[in-house]
Amino acid sequence: MIKQLPDAERPREKLLMRGTDILTDSELLALIFQTGSRHTDVMTLSQNLIKRFGCLQALFAADKQQFCQTSGAGPAKYAQLQACLTLIQRLLQEPLTQRQALQSSTQTKHFLISALKLEPHEVFAVLFLDNQHRIIRFEKMFYGTIDAATVYPRVIVEHALNLGSCAVILSHNHPSGIVKPSLADKQITQRLIKALGLIDIRVLDHIIVAGHLTYSFAECGDL
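^ thats the sequence. predicted structure below, dont judge the formating
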């Protein structure tokens, strides 16, 4: 299909001549994939993927089995998409992984959104900070329903001590898209504040990520 187009209408040539903004999502996907399959050209494959998943967020969040259900979309194409996604996430997270101090709550939220918004299941993560609020490490620590049975304060305390952390920012995602904290969210936050407080480590915030939305316990007076 691409070979049948005039040069000026082919995705690569359009990008080089007119920039990325002019390209559709399916054209950008076609540039990532480069080739289609034996029975499906790359433009048709890209268009079918966009149509099937409805939006880029759903496409990038799909697991291998879901992705490969589209004709022409095999494991190799899935690997290409995941490599692209990982590079994007690393690019967004890079400024806050170089032992830099957190400059604002907005910067922190953007970092956590890039790290958690595409997770298909609930993930509980911790930003471990030094005494100048520079990031020592970001760790995804617990997976599954976030409640008292799945989040272990002792494990977080041990990590904080081993890293020499003086403060932490807690975070987890809501794949449902509902950003409001549950009762369990509030309870585990208080348990962690008490456990970390025993070793003089402050909980600066607990930020919930739901897609592009965030809820800050500190800003809402819930700490």
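The two ends are 57 Å apart (CA to CA).
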